[in-house]
């Protein structure tokens, strides 16, 4: 029974990784931009939620709702005035610029908040759990997983049911022809990054309430996000959930065997998938 | 005032000059054909007219407004729609979505334009939204009327656009451009790679398109086809117009000379 419990905990942890990955996947899918600052943006969002909670005493969930539009605007401005200038045939400039941004963010957060680790407190909810038979699930991990599914469902609805989603797909297919349809690709990209930052806010809420965070942990979250995206298949949103779950399960199983193996087991699972299915589990036909 | 005209239009790809002072005009209600061999500059001309390539502002005039430097999305909102060479359907979109997206951003300044115009005012850049006027995107063409024009598309509306035959894809590409109810329709090589019987079907739609108020510029390699559909013809060679006139008045010999640069 302990193994069933371990696997379920792993699946729920996968929800968090899927959240990390969804924002990265969204941006990559639309503009082929690999955002190396994605992890640091999540940490930045965690600090923003923390500030709102400590300054006003508001509930962290409310704080995330308040932070979301701020981070949307930040993402929009970042894309519009910085990242759009790096896009082109060469994939190096966006990598270099987002790598630089990652360093700037880490150091700015270190300067502003020190290296002390922080946590967003949820009070009694942190230890609340639901029991099913002999199994017991934490409410926060359940909420995380449900949020991941909600985010992916929402993004799918956005992509396939709305005008902006149509514009996203058209621009991703062929930006020049999209511009002949009255679409300004740079604006579409700015909106997409704005939406990715809303997903970042949701990731940040769970990251900050589940564990301690400090300014330096962004790049490690980026690695998990990358692995989930690549396992799932580049640009596939449901694939990121599968990828997140695989890493999550591998980590909890690894930790159950030997606590030192937790992180390693996730990376090994990633390597195995890469060996067996180099294009990921659900690759898009046209990549 | 011509509906659309170029004045001494030049265009470059980096150091390579592709157009050397091209003058063409399109009057309301006309169909104009641009003919010429490969490399004559026809597609460059279309890319300039549609805003994919940017030129000096005054080199292209739409209803008397200099539009040469405007980006493609603004040109489209002014009422100039393009059927690009090779059809270029969006592969992630169904037939119907391909059509819908053609009309999704038609007509005047949207929120993004207004936001841009605010940014432009702050940064001192030219205001894109102010230049987008001149067309409301209203008119005859809707999904239903496109399906009347090309009934096969209604049957296949949920199919991915790129899963259709070449001729059907061309119908989608034309329908997609019509969805914005343009006053100028630019068609770049719409018969390229299609069987003669399919080309006939596609060109059969042209009278209906003109009836609804669009003026048309077609780029054609097939001289016979161009002479049949066009009121006037421009022949291009090496980035220059070498011959122009009413298609009923131009002799085959004159075209041959203008097309190949030598008398037969």
Written overview of the protein:
The complex is a heterodimer of chains A (287) and B (264). Chain A is mainly alpha-helical and 287 residues long. Chain A has one domain: Orthogonal Bundle (ABC transporter involved in vitamin B12 uptake, BtuC), CATH 1.10.3470. Chain A is 73% helix and 3% strand. In chain A, a hairpin with a 2-residue loop joins strand 1 and strand 2. In chain A, helix 10 (237-257) packs across helix 11 (262-276). Chain B has helices spanning 42-50, 72-77, 95-104, 111-123, 143-149, 151-155, 166-178, 196-204, 206-211, 223-229, 252-260; strands at residues 4-6, 9-13, 16-22, 25-26, 31-36, 60-62, 65-66, 80-83, 184-188, 215-220, 232-237, 240-246. Chain B has a single domain, classed as Rossmann fold (3-Layer(aba) Sandwich), CATH 3.40.50. Chain B is 36% helix and 21% strand. In chain B, the strands form three sheets. A six-stranded mixed sheet of chain B has the order 8-9-10-5-11-12, with helices on both faces. Chain B has a four-stranded antiparallel sheet with strand order 4-1-6-7, with no helix packed on it. Chain B is built from eleven helices and twelve strands. Chain B is globular. Chains A and B meet through helix 6 and helix 7 of A and helix 2 and helix 3 of B.
């Amino acid at each position: 029974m302990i193994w069933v419990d371990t696997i379920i905990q792993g699946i729920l942890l996968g929800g968090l990784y899927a959240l990390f990955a969804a924002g990265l996947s969204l941006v990559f899918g639309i503009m082929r931009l690999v955002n190396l600052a994605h992890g640091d943006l999540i940490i930045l969002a965690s600090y923003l939620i923390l500030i709102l909670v400590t300054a006003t005493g508001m509930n962290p969930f409310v704080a995330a709702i308040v932070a979301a539009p701020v981070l949307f605007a930040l993402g929009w401005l970042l894309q519009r005035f910085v990242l759009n200038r790096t896009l082109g045939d060469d994939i190096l400039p966006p990598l270099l610029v987002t790598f630089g941004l990652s360093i700037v963010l880490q150091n700015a957060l270190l300067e502003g908040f020190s290296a002390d680790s922080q946590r967003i407190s949820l009070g009694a909810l942190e230890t609340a759990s639901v029991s099913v038979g002999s199994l017991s699930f934490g409410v926060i991990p359940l909420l995380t997983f449900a949020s991941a599914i909600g985010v992916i469902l929402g993004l799918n609805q956005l992509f396939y049911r709305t005008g902006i989603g149509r514009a996203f797909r058209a621009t991703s297919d062929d930006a020049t022809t999209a511009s002949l349809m009255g679409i300004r690709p740079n604006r579409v990209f700015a909106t997409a990054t704005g939406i990715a930052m809303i997903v970042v806010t949701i990731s940040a809420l769970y990251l900050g309430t589940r564990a301690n965070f400090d300014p330096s942990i962004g790049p490690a979250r980026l690695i998990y996000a990358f692995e989930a995206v690549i396992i799932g298949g580049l640009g596939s949103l449901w694939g990121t959930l599968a990828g997140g779950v695989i890493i999550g399960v591998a980590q909890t199983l690894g930790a159950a065997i030997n606590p030192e193996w937790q992180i390693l087991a996730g990376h090994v699972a990633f390597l195995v998938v890469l060996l067996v299915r180099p294009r990921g589990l659900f690759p898009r036909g046209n990549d | 005032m011509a509906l659309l005209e170029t004045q001494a239009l030049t265009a470059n790809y980096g150091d390579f000059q592709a157009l050397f002072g091209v003058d063409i005009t399109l009057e309301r209600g006309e169909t104009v054909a641009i003919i010429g061999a490969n490399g004559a500059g026809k597609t460059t001309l279309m890319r300039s007219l549609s805003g994919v390539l940017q030129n000096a502002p005054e080199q292209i005039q739409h209803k008397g407004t200099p539009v040469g430097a405007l980006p493609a999305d603004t040109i489209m909102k002014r009422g100039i729609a393009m059927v690009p060479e090779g059809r270029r359907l969006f592969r992630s979109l169904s037939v119907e979505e391909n059509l819908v997206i053609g009309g999704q951003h038609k007509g005047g300044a949207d929120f993004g334009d207004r936001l841009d115009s605010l940014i432009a005012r702050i940064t001192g850049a030219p205001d894109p939204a102010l230049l987008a006027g001149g067309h409301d995107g209203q008119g005859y063409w809707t999904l239903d009327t496109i399906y009347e024009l090309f009934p096969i598309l209604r049957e296949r509306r949920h199919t991915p656009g790129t899963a259709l035959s070449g001729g059907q894809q061309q119908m989608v590409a034309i329908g997609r451009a019509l969805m914005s109810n343009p006053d100028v329709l630019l068609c770049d090589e719409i018969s390229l790679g299609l069987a003669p019987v399919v080309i006939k079907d596609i060109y059969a739609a042209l009278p209906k398109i003109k009836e609804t108020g669009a003026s048309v510029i077609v780029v054609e390699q097939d001289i016979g086809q161009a002479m049949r559909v066009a009121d006037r013809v421009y022949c291009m060679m090496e980035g220059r117009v070498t011959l122009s006139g009413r298609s009923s008045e131009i002799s085959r010999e004159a075209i041959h000379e203008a097309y190949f640069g030598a008398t037969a």
